[in-house]
Each structure stands twice: as C-alpha cells, then as structure tokens.
Write a structure and sequence with these properties.
- By secondary structure, this protein is mainly alpha-helical.
- The protein starts with about 45 loop residues before the first helix and ends in a 21-residue tail after the last helix.
- Helix content is about 45%, strand content about 5%.
- The longest helix is centred in the N-terminal third of the chain and has 21 residues.
- A 3-stranded antiparallel beta sheet has the order 3-4-5. A two-stranded antiparallel sheet has the order 1-2.
- It contains 16 helices and 5 strands.
- This is Tyrosine-type recombinase/integrase.
- Pfam families: Phage_integrase.
Length: about 400
C-alpha cells in the first residue's frame, strides 16, 4: 500500500519548487538515518524535504534502509546543491504521478514510465505545455539515478527507466535553451550603465547591483559560486586579489579561486565600503558577499540575507533594461558566463586558458559556449592550402588567350 500524497497541489509537481535553495543545503553532520525529528535533535533539511514528497511510505522507526532514508541519502550523494535541487524537483514529478495513479513506485514498470513521460508538462506563465527534449531527458535521468540507488541497496528489483526511449542527443541540442550572449559593445554598455548609476546615486543597492554585473561579466563564474561566497572568501594569492568559491565537479568540499582585476575590484570595493557605512564602527559584519539591503520604510526587514539566483536575474534584467539592451527581458545569469567565454575566444585568447577560467574538464564544453563565427575566420583550412600549395604541380589555370588552351589542359 502506498502512502497518500502529503499535499494536493493545484499544479503538477513537475512545475513546482517545493523548497528554497537554502533548505536543500547539505548537512555533513547528518547520518542517513537522521531524517526525522524523532531520530535526533539536529534538524536535517534534506530529510525534511524528502518527507514532503508524495507516494513514499513512511519508514519504520530505526529502519536504516527505508525508502525515505535512502532517498535522502541519494540526494546527499550528489555533487552539488544545484544537482540536489534539480533531482529533487524531477523526482517529485515522478512521485506525484505515482500518487495520482495509485502506483507504488517500487512496483513501477516500463509502461508506467512511458505513460508519465507522455504526460509530462511544464508551466510557463499560466499555461502548460509539453517539455522540451532536454527537460524530458533530464527528468528521466534523475529518476533513473534514484532507481539505480534503490537497486544498489536491495530495495527494488528493477529500474523501470532502463529501456524507455529517451530523446536523442540531436533532439536535446536542438531544444536546449541558450541564454542570450552580449556583444563586446553591449557588455561595455551594461557595465558602464550599472557603474554610472551607482556613482550618481551612491547608495548600497546601486553599488551592489553594479558589483553583481561586474562579477557576471568579468569572471565567468557560475551564479551559485558568488551568491554562495562569503566576505571571508575574498583574499590574495601570489599577490593577486582572488575570490574563493565552490567549484562544480570537485566534490562537496571542492574549492577554487578566480582572480579579481582592477575594473571589478573598483566596483566591489565601493559596494563593500558603502555597506560597511551602515554600521556605527564602519566595518561590515561577517556574512555573505552579496546581501539584500534594508527596506527603506519597514524596520522589520533589515536586509543582510544572501542574494539568490532569482535576485541576480532581476538585477541583471533591470540593469540591461536601463542600458536599452534588446535582449534585456531574456537575459539570465548564465548570459554572463556565455558572454565572457564568447568574448575571449572571439579575441584569440587560447582555448586552454578560457577552459581553465570556465572550469571545464573538456575543451569541447568550452567550445559549446562560443557564439561567434571566429572558427570560420581562423579556420586552419587556409593554412592547409598554403602548405600544400608549395608542393603541388598544378595550380589555377591562367586566363585564356584566344582559343589557345591553358597549360596542363591539353
């Protein structure tokens, strides 16, 4: 018998984010069994999140291998917070289907996965539509990973997703959304607009917004890297100013740093100085690198909370709109990363250096971010033609004189 759904949302869970990013942060001190209030005094946010999922029967007290315990352990095993949140949402979509159809997820067969895949939707605004090939493939991959983990713990005998037909790589590439990339002139205009506004207003929100724009378009960092950074992550290495940050693919404790150059440091230092001015001693309190600001009229909202990805997106689009950029409404934080990589590769910066800045393991991934046609302009085909030309015995035919055939064409 399966458990009844924990809630009855109006929209399918495929399109619902159940918990904020902070609630899905890993808790290294938590053991797999600590997934409920009864199993220990320390709250476990991942266990609490799993308890909200539908169609998962409650675990027996003390059961180390209950479905909820293992689901929480599976989420903890992922390499990053972003992956945990994504897998959680995708699994929630499948379990919502199970709850709505009265299906025990441990007894699911391929036909059930096929039916779920065919019924998938995404909500855009107030409308629902079928998901893209990339979204469908991602959801199936997440659920497959969950079943593989359950299989490895002898909780289920099968992975019903294994033989399900998935979108091809070509379909995924064709449907994948790419964040708009800015030209060099547009990037400079955006940076000038944000900093110029900060100089004119000289307020903490304006300088913070200018710092956000500078971090996006001078570092190629993923948005989670600097929204997750603290003031203590600013430092120096070999005489250069750097920002330490969490690095994707380097494990839970993986860290890396990026160099901060003058243009960025000027804006960032101005922001931190204005922010410190809020305190009587003129020293910023320890905490996140980028924070919300005090509400001008509501003393119950003192600010100081860490910026989220949504905050950064809103700041970027607002500044781009002020700059008059035509793609303002479609920009995302990933636009900064794409723009930096495109700008560097388009200006003959070696691929290896750009790959290292972007933190990509494979140079082909870095190439995939490049939105210029510089590959045509710098194609080695011209070099090949020049190299072979010195060894060829025939060449372009000279202009004909009357009816006399050209040499080599008799």
């Amino acid at each position: 018998m399966i458990a009844a759904p924990k809630s009855a949302p109006d929209a399918p869970l495929e399109a619902t984010t159940l918990l904020p990013a902070e609630a899905m942060a890993p808790n290294p001190a938590s053991a797999p069994a600590a997934t409920s209030a009864a199993s220990g005094p320390a709250p476990d946010p991942i266990g609490q999140a799993v308890a909200l999922l539908p169609a998962l029967p409650p675990d027996r007290p003390g059961d180390r291998y209950g479905l909820q315990v293992l689901t929480a352990a599976w989420l903890r095993s992922q390499s990053s917070d972003a992956t945990r949140r994504g897998y959680y949402r995708d699994l929630a979509g499948w379990l919502d289907y199970c709850a709505r159809t009265g299906l025990d997820p441990r007894a699911a067969r391929r036909a059930d996965i096929d039916d779920w895949s065919a019924s998938m939707t995404v909500t855009v605004g107030d409308r629902s539509r079928p998901p893209s090939a990339a979204t469908r493939a991602r959801r199936l991959a997440a659920v497959s990973s969950w079943y593989t983990y359950l299989q490895s713990n002898d909780v289920t005998d099968r992975n019903p997703t294994l033989l399900v037909k998935r979108p091809t790589s070509a379909q995924i590439a064709a449907s994948a959304y790419k964040a708009p990339t800015l030209s060099v002139a547009e990037t400079a205009l955006l940076l000038d607009t944000a900093e110029g506004r900060a100089v004119d207003l000289d307020t903490e929100p304006a300088w913070r917004d200018a710092a956000v724009i500078a971090l996006l378009f001078y570092t190629a960092l993923r948005v989670s890297a600097f929204t997750g950074a603290d003031l203590t992550d600013l430092g120096t290495e070999a005489g250069y100013r750097v920002l330490w940050h969490a690095a994707k693919g380097k494990g839970r404790d993986g860290r890396d740093y990026v160099r901060l150059d003058g243009e960025l440091c000027r804006v960032l230092d101005a922001y931190l100085a204005v922010r410190a001015g809020r305190h009587p001693d003129g020293v910023a309190r320890p905490g996140p690198l980028l924070v919300t600001t005090p509400h001008p009229y509501d003393p119950t909202k003192p600010g100081g909370k860490r910026l989220t990805q949504r905050d950064v997106t809103n700041i970027l689009r607002r500044q781009a709109e002020l700059a008059g950029l035509p793609t303002a409404a479609r920009l995302s934080p990933h636009s900064g990363r794409r723009t930096v990589i495109t700008t560097l590769l388009g200006n003959d910066v070696p691929l290896a250096k750009v790959q290292d800045l972007a933190g990509h393991a494979d140079p082909r991934t870095t190439r995939g971010y490049d939105d210029t046609n510089h590959k045509l302009a710098s194609s080695p085909v011209t070099d090949l033609t020049r190299i072979l030309a010195g060894h060829r015995t025939t060449g372009p035919a000279p202009a004909k004189q009357g009816n006399r055939p050209a040499p080599g064409h008799r």
